Fold:
Amino acid sequence: MWPYPKIVAHRGGGALAPENTIAAMRCGLTHGFRAVEFDVMLARDGVPVVMHDTVFGRTVAGEGNVNAYTAQELATRDAGAWFGEEYRGEPIPSFEQVAAFCMQHHIWMNIEIKPVPGFEDQTGWTVAQATQRLFSGTLDRSPGALPLLSSFSFEALQAAQLAAPDIPRGWLVDEIPPDWHERLLALGAIALHTNHNNLTPLLARAIKEAGFGLFCYTVNEPARATEILSWGVDAFCTDRIDVIGPYFTGATTAVN
Structure:
């Protein structure tokens, strides 16, 4: 049900580096993580870039929408200074740059498709096709060797399913809806990704018994991680990569 790593560095370096940057990916790797989650959306020219917010202001100074700029223009924006002076000048990377770094270092990727509103289909299709191209020469076609596409956008995942049916998919939800089983089947998804705060032991058991993987975000306390793992949760992402290491199995055995 879950052939992937159990502990995943959220947005690359969690709380220790500017999210969704190459610096963040490098930070996660330094802490022993060979599994990362990051967000992908489209620039104005249709090139996938790695960024969480669809508007500037939080991690990138200024105002405006990401899709008002080309990927080349976005690469000149500073995505690191907000986090610390030592990261000043860290650019918004393209999806291909981040994927290349991860592939070079044998880092598994949970690629969250994060479309700008109104570009759900286009983003899902483009990101899925780009992922398929990157892994077209991979000799190992086992599920664990491929990245996992995820999204809160059902439409984006439907487009991804059509564009690259062989790339596995996980549906992201904050609260698990009553029709979760039907929706996962419709997407051909292998896993449900959900907010650990809204998960219960009963729901966890139902999802696992239905044959799906179960992934949670964003778990930052070892005791809570231990609890949800005991419910049958397969994996989770964390911002506290300094506290919950890549080989974590329980609250008393965090390893970095």
About this structure: The beta strands are 7-10, 35-42, 48-50, 108-113, 148-151, 169-173, 191-195, 213-217, 235-238. The mean pLDDT is 95. Residues 18 and 83 are 6 Å apart (CA to CA).
